[in-house]
Amino acid sequence: MNRIALALVSVLALFFAATAQSAEIKIAFVNSSTLLEQAPQADIAKKKLEKEFAPREKEIRDAQQTAQALETKLNRDGVTMSDSDRSKQEQELNRQLRDLQRMQSNFRDDLNLRKNEELGKLQRVVLAAIKDVAKTKGYDLVLAEGVVYAAPQVDITSDVLAKLKQDASAGK
Question: pLDDT at position 1, please?
Fold first, then answer.
């Protein structure tokens, strides 16, 4: 029984090898880094994030200016202040600096989280465009990262970028 199974496996392997050799496989390459940088959807996401975080950025700049003004006042007038006034001013400056550090840390964390969300969306859009171009042009295999060399005739990066631009102008 093992001989029959082995013979059957051998025949099937030969059959699939012959079929694979007779069928032409169409392979393409795409530079996904270029697509992520040059896709119009990337610019849209960047502008969206800038608009979303602009008020908080302004709030941080205002807090920096307030703390800097207090520090300047303390340095300038600290010598002539009473010990209790100077101590109160120093405590206020320290409180403002702690609040500022907290605001900056929260801002960075929130911004990084939103950047990652937008990058994930962009990666899904780029992947969908790559798949669409590959199906439309009849490619069996599309390679991306880790390719040492790809001849220009198999590089479909410009085709995918054109598709992304078309989708962006259509509002997709």
Answer: 47
Closest by CA to 156, choosing from 29, 66, 45, is: 29
Q: For residue 145, what are the β-bridge partners? A: none
pLDDT for 32-68, tens place per residue? 999 999 999 999 999 999 999 999 999 999 999 999 9
Residue 28 amino acid letter: A
What are the sequence ranges of the domains in the chain? 24-169
- Give the tens place of pLDDT for each residue, 105-143: 999 999 999 999 999 999 999 999 999 999 999 999 999
CA-CA distance, 156 to 171, in Å (whole number)?
A: 23
**Can you read off the two tokens belonging to residue 34?**
């270029």
Measured between alpha carbons, how far is residue 44 from residues 38, 47, 112, 120 in Å? 11, 5, 17, 14
In DSSP terms, 141 is beta-bridged to 27
Q: Which fold has domain 24-169?
A: Protein Binding, DinI Protein; Chain A (3.30.910)
